[in-house]
Amino acid sequence: MEPFTNHRGLIATLDRANVDTDAIIPKQFLKSIKRTGFGESLFFDWRYQQDGSPNPEFELNLPEFSGASILVTKNNFGCGSSREHAVWAVMQYGFRVILAPRKELDGSSIPAFADIFRNNSVKNGLLTIELGEAEVNAIFDAVARFKNVEATIDLDEQRVVLHLDEEEAFHFEIDPVVKKHLLHGLDDIALTLEHIDAIDAFEQNHNVQIPARG
Amino acid sequence: MKKTLFEKIWNQHVVKTLDDGTVILYIDRHLVHEVTSPQAFEGLRLTGRTLRHPELTFSTMDHNVPTDDRSEIKDPISRAQVEALRKNCKDFGVTLYDLDSEHQGIVHIIGPELGITLPGLTMVCGDSHTSTHGAFGTLAFGIGTSEVEHVLATQTLRQSRPKTFKVEFTGSLKPGATAKDMILKLIGKIGTAGGTGYVIEYCGSAIRALSMEGRMTICNMSIEGGARAGLIAPDDTTLNYVLSGDKPFRPKGEALDRSIAYWKSLPTDEGAEFDREITLDASDIAPQVTWGTSPGMVTDVSGTVPDPSTVPGYSRRDVEQALEYMGLTPGTKITDIRPDTIFIGSCTNARLEDLRTISRLIKGRKKADSLRVIVVPGSMQVRRQAEAEGIDEIFKSFGAEWRMAGCSMCLGMNPDQLTPGERSASTSNRNFEGRQGKGGRTHLVSPEMAAAAAVEGHFVDIREWEPYQQMAR
Q1: CATH number for the segment(s) A6-185
Q2: Which of A14, A15, A18, A207 is best to mutate for the B interface (most B CBs within 10 A)?
Q3: pLDDT digit string, tens, across residues B399-435
Q4: Where are the domains of chain A?
Q5: How many degrees, rounded to 5, is the angle at CA B30 between CA B160 and CA B62?
């Protein structure tokens, strides 16, 4: 996995909450046995018209978002299934970072990202950043007002900097485990296999290791 | 120290706590299907790694398989995916319940049937509805393909400890309300992200009163409330289920005795603390129908399609987008909504008990002319048992299509799909845009509510529906 340190890129906004994994990558594209080739199918049902041409009304098809690598969207992004294809599609389209808000609504606090999606993102080097709602709204406003807004994401410093006439910066929190993982592009399996002796020893004593075949 | 069910299972499975606070968690059972595994097996090949415990890994094909004619998978890409699973299972020595197996079916239905699912174990699968197995007091959750590869290679996962969430259903269900309505009601209340970061434990008198099938329905949809796992403490109902029938992977003899003693130690200790708690009175729960494109967009069958500004947990814009997609206007009575297709299937509600209940409601009746009814048993074993009881004949004379086992129209990866604008009443778990087919409009309901809609051609409040009252008597 590629380490993630700094990233500067163009922002695209997608003003929808609860974007589910069926919307991110519809089922017909899950039949592939490869890890590549999903970028073209990202947001397929929204992105293309019946005849296969781009839907001009879908945000990501706007000319000013062409080449964007930072997606700014709304709460509970990636809810639904465990398909890692959703993360592959987001990355293969060209996104390296997704920003979304933790939303306070009707007395409940709705996280920016669904659990399994966020977890799958870490394994692939996709940085998901949860900000406050006011901060995300400020980014939406800035992108609507000034076209072609770029941002720099500094993972080590945990900062998002919007490159406007007057720069705006936001601090973000991140799980230190996730941060380390992304900064170093770690391979989980190799790391776990370093503890193979502990796994061997555990299995000797695992008292719920009910033999699978009776 | 008083412990919750979750803590007891978790603690039993911690191989090692790492410096950063994450743990290496041992995984007792790994279910594998054709869609989320090929890239994981490929990863093993590319790195020259082997499968640590083929005997703890079980596989079937369910997501993309045809449910009518099985002689040939016509879609070449689906066929290649099925063939890849066959090759991977052969190369790595994994048990496979292939298309011609008497045990083929939806992974989450065959696990319990075969005794692979047992209380107190940890269990994973590259599928978010792995939460189903929590009904047995099994810590079970969905993982992505990278984690599938990690489990194949190491029989462990690196995990941060989730928080605990106690959901208590007090009282008892009134006639007409089911396990499906309990979970839909809960999701309507906490929202589709309300359980994010938590493992839910469902408890209370209304949970205790449920069959294993009902408990599986509830745990299945934990993920629709954002929780990766849902748990129900094992009790006599659990034990009777596990010990009944021919379950080849159930422990035997002394191992079984030891297991039962362990299972009995699992329930949450009196006074153990949870990070969050909520209580719902089951006697207040009415049959539920979803009207939007998120499982939290749900209301009582006696209700109406809501005004966009009045839906808790969703912004006005969320609701407007959903209603436009669904082709519904605020104020429409739920009972005036007319489905075109009734889908009876999925890991949520396609077990024998579901089919039995529906067959009692529709016996001697005909489906409404305006709609089609597709019945997809959750497994070939469910299908066989139903046929032995004559349930298939009841469905056929009703006018329904009686299919082979698979995920089918729950996600429409196989040819069973809705067409644009087509409306379904579905016993499945997700009403997302395009879930059952591009442009398809899904209403999630209980099997009983689906049966009533199939007879009448529109949703009906089964509490006032004559055939339901007859059955209840």
Answers
A1: 3.20.19.10
A2: A18
A3: 999 999 999 999 999 999 999 999 999 999 999 999 9
A4: 6-185
A5: 120
